[in-house]
Write a structure and sequence with these properties.
By secondary structure, the chain is α/β, with parallel strands linked by helices. It has 12 helices and 10 strands. The longest helix is centred in the N-terminal third of the chain and has 23 residues. The protein is globular and about 65 Å long.
């Protein structure tokens, strides 16, 4: 009986695999990344594209359509044919943009979630020889000298900016924001001591932390980062419950047939289960994740509410 059941399950899996291949035979699948090449989103999307192509039995390519804080690429996918051949690999700005832009270039229901694929904590950094020794010290200095400390970010629509703003609001701190056009120049100025601190991606900051040019004070996730295991969390040091992730996930144009969604989701789950893929994500400073479309939708709803409140209370505007 047990062997018969095992054979039946194996047969069902084979049928599902063949069906997935059949849906995408002779069709190129495009993963649109709404950010410039070279960043974490781009790199991880390319890892997935290579493996998904094998699972789906077709070519999967990455198309970078950067600009306007990701809304150009998002709008392109929102208006694409809903047949499963165009996907969006997006990140936290997707949850922030609607609260910064006077009007979005696509309808709120024009995209539907497929799956959360990764959570990336940010790390609070200062210059390597900064007198600020830890996050408690930073908070104490900010309270003792209102308006004296400044912090950098790569722009108003980034989670790095809002992570600092969330910390400022929760602890009633008076600090000055210094905006940059991207995270790279911001990190350079923190390293040089021109700016006191910032939240940066773990992937970007880790090499400089390891070389001693930067000091890592805390990470923004509830759990410690596998890439920086000796660095405490903000939650365990000064603010219980604090979390500010850079999430990564896949979305589709609204109206993709349920069978196609199931085939794409099944292929993605199989890819994310591969040890090599999980290790690539960890190496990039992210925590591999997974979800059903419904779970991702619920996650996005929470993110939207959280960042809407931070933007409103902080009076944050586009740079």
């Amino acid at each position: 009986m047990k062997k018969t059941l095992q054979r039946l399950l194996a047969a069902c899996a084979l049928v599902a695999s063949v069906a997935a291949h059949a849906q995408f035979t002779d069709k190129t699948v495009t993963i649109v990344v709404p950010y410039a090449p070279g960043g974490a989103a781009d790199a991880l999307a390319r890892v997935l594209a290579q493996r998904l192509g094998t699972k789906l039995g077709t070519s999967v390519i990455v198309d970078n359509r950067a600009g306007a804080s990701g809304t150009i690429g998002e709008s392109y996918v929102a208006k694409a044919k809903p047949d499963g051949t165009t996907m969006l690999y997006d990140a936290t700005p997707y949850s922030i943009n609607p609260h910064l832009f006077p009007k979005m270039p696509y309808a709120a229901d024009a995209l539907q979630p497929l799956a959360l694929v990764a959570l990336a904590p940010n790390v609070l950094i200062v210059k390597g020889d900064s007198p600020i020794k830890d996050v408690k010290d930073l908070v104490a200095r900010a309270k003792a000298q209102p308006g004296k400390l400044n912090y950098a970010s790569g722009g108003s629509g980034t989670v790095q900016r809002l992570a600092s703003e969330l910390l400022r609001q929760k602890l009633a701190l008076d600090m000055v924001h210094v905006g940059y056009k991207s995270g790279g120049p911001a990190i350079v100025d923190v390293t040089g001591g021109q700016v006191d601190f910032m939240f940066a991606t773990v992937a970007a900051a880790s090499p400089l932390v390891e070389s001693g040019k930067l000091r890592a004070l805390a990470v923004s996730s509830p759990e410690r980062s596998k890439r920086l295991p000796n660095v405490p969390t903000v939650a365990e040091t000064v603010l219980p419950g604090y979390e500010a992730y850079e999430w990564h996930g896949l979305l589709l144009p609204a109206g993709v047939p349920a069978a196609t969604i199931d085939a794409l989701h099944k292929a993605l789950v199989e890819v994310m289960a591969e040890d090599e893929v999980k290790q690539r994500f960890v190496d990039m400073g992210t925590q591999p994740a997974g979800s059903t479309p419904a779970e991702f939708a619920a996650f996005l709803k929470k993110e939207d509410a959280k960042w809407a409140e931070v933007v409103r209370k902080g009076g944050i505007k586009l740079d």
